[in-house]
Amino acid sequence: MVNRGASQLKNYARIIGTxxxxxxxxxxxxxxxxxxxxxDEWITKRTGIKKRxxxxxxxxxxxxxxxxxxxxxxxxxISPSDIDLxxxxxxxxxxxxxxxxxxxxxxxGVSGSAAFDIQAVCTGFIYALSVAEKFIRTGSAHTALVVGxxxxxxxxxxxxxxxxxxxxxxxxxxVLQSSEDLGVISTHLHADGNYQQLLxxxxxxxxxxxxxxxxxxxxxxxxxxxxxxxVRTLERIVEETLVANNMDKGEIDWLxxxxxxxxxxxxxxxxxxLPMERVVVTVDSHGNTSAASVPLALDIxxxxxxxxxxxxxFLEAFGGGFTWGSxxxxx
Length: 331
Ligand code: UT7
Description:
By secondary structure, the chain is an alpha+beta fold. It is 33% helix and 24% strand. α3 packs across α4 (100-107) and α8 (223-244) packs parallel to α9.
């Protein structure tokens, strides 16, 4: 599905603030060496990850989302009551229902706006951004809070070295607002359910995650096959996005990729002819935070001054489903 409406309508959806939150507890590769048969060298070489953050036992995905959202609202200099749409992308919702978006709305102390979750695993934030952009473009919403938040540590088998070294917890958020200035240029969303078995969790998620652990409902992944499809697919979406906008590779200022593996990120950067200095990399210190990884990376690059107003950003993600997507935008 391709949305390329921004050029036909005056209402653009523009990011006016970003925020992130990472739980305090840090799990290093050295810590993992004590838990499973692995080494810092293997993890670093194969994935680029050095450490990741892990939510406290009492912290839920919504708690992380609240912190990231408050940071984004502060950066946007608006209050929660200015928000008329909340979309939360998460694979690890607090409960089956109410949605994490409704729980977040309550935590932010407001009510009445539309609020719902989106589930597209690691591509969740790109899906959420795309949906929020459509609400704004059509005039159905003026100011949207779009969040990616995950507590993947709850669904990790800490005895499975092939997956437990990869993931981390965190949240990222953006405030998207109607604007006459160019913002989101186009978004590209895809899925292929034929790949559902390569990356999956076999049961539902809830606040009572210890029950899930007893049931053995952990992330299972056939890593090298996922890797191959991810590289191939992300290369294709680079092409698709550039062609849809009649844009040259040289016009992209920053790649803000999903942070699953440094080797996947490097392959996408190569496809875009972008040197790694123009790629925002957080996988080394966050691991793979699924739906949270793109907004977290964006927030970090905005706050440290790398991403500046007017820059052209290429956001992309690939994840379970499989799902994949991209968003091209002017920051
Ligand atoms: O975000 C959603 C999408 N997810 C992704 O895009 C992740 C895609 N996949 C990957 O990033 C990579 O495939 C992994 C990082 C998961 C694995 O890297 P790989 O280079 O594909 O390794 P592999 O799975 O082919 O395993 C190579 C070897 C195996 O040993 P043998 O069979 O060759 O003796 C594994 O058992 O490495 C072994 N291995 C480990 N060794 C030390 C697997 N995990 C570990 C580990 N420590 N943690």
